[in-house]
Amino acid sequence: MKPLSLRWRLVLIGGAAIGLVMALSVTMLAVLFDRHVQRVGVEDLRDRALTLLSGIEPGAQPGQPPRLRDQPRNPAWQRPFSGHYWQVWLGDQVLRSRSLWDEVLPVDPTPPPPGAGRVLTLPGPAGQTLLVLDQQVLIGRGDLAVPVRLLVAEDQDDAAAARAAFLRDLMPWLGGLMVALMLGSFLQVTLGLRPLAQVGAHLDGLAQGRRARLGQDLPAEVAPLADRLDRLLDDRDRELDRARHRAGDLAHGFKTPLQALMGDAQNLRDLGQPQIAASIEQVATVMRRHVDRELARARIRTDAAHARAEIAPAVERVIGVLSRTPAGAGMGWRIDVPPGPSARIDPDDLTEALGALLENALRHARSQVGVALRVQGAHLDLAIRDDGPGVPPAALERLVQRGVRLDESGDGQGIGLAIATEIAEAAGGGLTLANADPGLLVRLRLPLHLSSGVPA
Q1: How many angstroms separate the CA atoms of 257 and 351, rounded?
Q2: Burial of residue 33 (number of CB atoms within 10 Å: 0-12, 13-18, 19+)
Q3: Which secondary structure element, helix H or strand E, spans residue 203, and what is its range?
Q4: Taking Cα atoms as reference points, which of 111, 109, 134 lies closest to residue 121?
Q5: Percent above pLDDT 70 for the chain
Q6: How many whole angstroms separate alpha carbon 343 and alpha carbon 362?
Q7: 133 close to 119: Cβ distance less than 8 angstroms
């Protein structure tokens, strides 16, 4: 499973956080609305309790319980099971609103202290849930004042309906707010990660040779990473230089003993031992080829950050040298290399690769060698073709296999193709072989230097 990109991970995490916050916000708003509705309901019950108390008057004689002068005329208290009720204790007498019909509110028989009240939630008629104000007041003056307990209640279904209506009105606004926050989060993540695109551009420039290092012109958060990568590249270049110098020193160290070995073989030949001399010369020749190849590899530059080589002059120089050789003097050279395009490769490496490939073509051509250059996207395709016998298909397949050394194919290619392949791969390109019928077609693919002039 392909992992999510950093951008989508941050967007999903931000979206989950926003969703959680919005859910908590809805819950808290609902709780706050319920509390507000309850406070408003309690205040309404207090007003109704005052209306009910206004109809209660002290008894006509001392010691007589208070009496309800007149039934309150609120229509909600008259309609049975309307959801609005009252219940009053006048001494031993319990009076109820007509809306209670024959129901009695199940309340704690112990009343609150005189002058105090409490808010209760009680079951009511027809399965209703009631918000109840239970309070006790004193009716009368001085020592003649007597306590009166009264309950005023209303159904909470109205509060639940108001809460549902509030949430219905609130959800579209919260949904719009959530969408706006998600868009803001996406924009924040996009802008926040934009410096990473700058890092990618610097890496592309590094790979294409437009930059030697990542540099410090990056945001402060990624500058330490860029600095460590630059130091790692510096260490790699120093190690490659040391390895190249060691390989060159080792190859040069073998050249003198091999030359001495060739001299000993000649002495054996002079002493009448031609078979032993030929055997020694064959082994020494193979070893010299390996040494020459390692010397060529040691000269290959792997740091092509600022390397640039124009193709046309390099081809002209190499063909000019080969044309002065006996084989090249009578050869027909067909050159189709426009001026301008440059490759991102060291000029000496390009000359060595061209020399190896053109010498190989010259060695096997009958009468003509062709060189053509084409620009393909960010690469240059240099095709070198001869009109010789080509390569047997089975051997050609072996030559292009990954990991097979070209000079060990036994088909007379020498080490030229091996050197050219290693130079091309070190520069970020490659080498391919194909029979052209007649002849062999070699394609040298090199990265295009972006600042080079490319013909339309």
Answers
A1: 29
A2: middle
A3: helix 157-208
A4: 134
A5: 85
A6: 24
A7: yes
The domains of the chain are located at 6-161, 235-299, 309-447
pLDDT value at position 411?
Answer: 42
Nearest to 418 by CA among 319, 369, 409: 409
* String of DSSP letters for 93-147: EEEE-GGGTT------SSPPPBT-EEEEEEE-GGG-EEEEEEEEEEESSGGG-EE
Beta partners for residue 67, in sequence order: 57
State the average pLDDT for the chain: 81
Q: What is the DSSP string of 16-79?
A: HHHHHHHHHHHHHHHHHHHHHHHHHHHHHHHHHHHHHHTTEE--SSTTPPPEE-S----HHHHS
Query: Could you tell me which of 303, 317, 308 has the C-alpha nearest to residue 342?
Result: 308
* Tokens coding 369: 């060698």
Contact 418, 405 (CB under 8 A): yes
Q: Which listed CATH number (3.30.950.10, 2.170.190.11, 3.30.565.10, 1.20.140.10) goes with 309-447?
A: 3.30.565.10
How high is the pLDDT of residue 408?
Answer: 47
Confidence class for position 297, pLDDT limits 50, 70, 90: low
Classify 333 as helix, strand or coil.
strand
